[in-house]
Design a protein that fits this description.
Helix content is 59%, strand content 6%. The chain has five helices and two strands. It has a two-stranded antiparallel ribbon. A hairpin with a 2-residue loop joins strand 1 (21-24) and strand 2 (27-30). The chain is globular, with a radius of gyration of 19 Å.
């Protein structure tokens, strides 16, 4: 049994480690000390657990720290993993009304950590000449 405040501090340390900026060649670059598999298979489930498990007012600090940690984790995920987290949270929202405020806060933290390029290439363009029969 690890006390709740110790779990909260452990999540804060992980968040701080993930939020550190390293300076390379004069530009800021966020480096991640963990692999994608470690982030998604170990750290993310550990960080999401307090959101779905918090039932008392005493667990609120722990849940809020886990939300901040999920935001920091999301900055390092690939698009597929990022989309899965967001989709899972959106699907759990109507199912878990007692944790609604924490799930909404987690959705906001994930969206705030959006780190992908907004300039998407149009790969689905169909050339009109390909449809013609010759």
């Amino acid at each position: 049994h690890i006390q709740v405040h110790r779990r909260s501090r452990a999540l804060a340390r992980i968040r701080k480690l993930l939020s550190n900026d390293s300076v390379e060649d004069g530009s800021k670059h966020q480096s991640c000390p963990f692999s994608i598999q470690t982030l998604t298979n170990i750290l993310l489930p550990l960080a999401m657990h307090p959101i779905y498990d918090s039932e008392t007012k005493a667990d609120e600090g722990y849940a809020l720290e886990s939300i901040a940690t999920i935001g920091a984790l999301s900055k390092h995920l690939t698009w597929g993993k990022y989309q899965n987290i967001l989709w899972k949270a959106l699907m759990d929202l109507p199912r878990r009304e007692s944790q609604e405020r924490y799930i909404i806060a987690m959705i906001c933290a994930v969206i705030d950590s959006f780190h992908f390029s907004e300039k998407m290439k149009k790969t689905n363009e169909v050339d009109e000449n390909d449809d013609e029969i010759t």
